[in-house]
């Protein structure tokens, strides 16, 4: 009986992924931190609510979100999770991104990718109590 190779997709020729646009929909970005302090978010929402439209646009422009592109093309947020929650609460749908690492042409496995992300300290898989 032939053995099923879970990593067989790595051996097939892969189509080159297009680089992401510098502006992305918030809901297209994948988090790497599972908890955010909502008190901090609420304070920032109150502060940004007082901004004019022009000031909000500048605030979004001045805070690009760092992302890592996975081998399968997903965009993973490595910082600014609170910023994105504030944007979501204020109905800001798109933000600027800054690619800090691009593994879209890598043949690393899912497990290898997450080990790399952990070594880079690009994930925070803990609850609000650090557990």
Your description of this structure?
- It is a single chain.
- A hairpin with a 5-residue loop joins strand 3 and strand 4 (75-77).
- The radius of gyration is 18 Å and the shape is flat.
- Helix content is 31%, strand content 17%.
- Residues 1-16 have low confidence and may be disordered.
- The termini are far apart.
- The chain is α/β, with parallel strands linked by helices.
- It has four helices and five strands.
- A five-stranded mixed beta sheet has the order 1-5-3-4-2.
- Helix 1 crosses helix 3.
- The longest helix is centred in the first third of the chain and has 12 residues, at 38-49.
Overall morphology: flat
Report the mean per-residue pLDDT as an integer: 82
Strands ordered across the widest β-sheet:
1-5-3-4-2
Return Rg in Å: 18 Å
H/E series, N to C?
A: EEHHEEHEH
Number of contiguous helices: 4
Largest sheet: 5 strands, mixed
How are the elements arranged and paired?
Blueprint: E1 23-25, E2 29-30, H1 38-49, H2 53-61, E3 65-69, E4 75-77, H3 81-89, E5 94-102, H4 110-119
Parallel strand pairs: 2-4, 3-5
Antiparallel strand pairs: 1-5, 3-4
Helix pairs in contact: 1-3
């Amino acid at each position: 009986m032939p053995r099923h190779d879970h990593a067989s997709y790595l051996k097939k020729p892969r189509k080159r992924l297009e680089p992401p646009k510098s502006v992305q929909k918030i809901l297209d970005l994948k988090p790497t931190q599972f908890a955010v302090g909502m008190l901090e978010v609420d304070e920032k929402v109150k502060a940004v609510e007082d901004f004019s439209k022009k000031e909000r646009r500048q605030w979004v422009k001045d805070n690009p979100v760092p992302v890592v592109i996975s081998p399968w093309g997903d965009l993973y947020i490595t910082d600014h999770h609170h910023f994105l929650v504030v944007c979501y609460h204020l109905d800001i749908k798109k933000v600027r991104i800054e690619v800090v690492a691009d593994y879209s042409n890598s043949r690393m496995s899912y497990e290898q990718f997450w080990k790399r992300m952990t070594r880079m300290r690009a994930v925070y898989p803990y609850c609000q109590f650090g557990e």
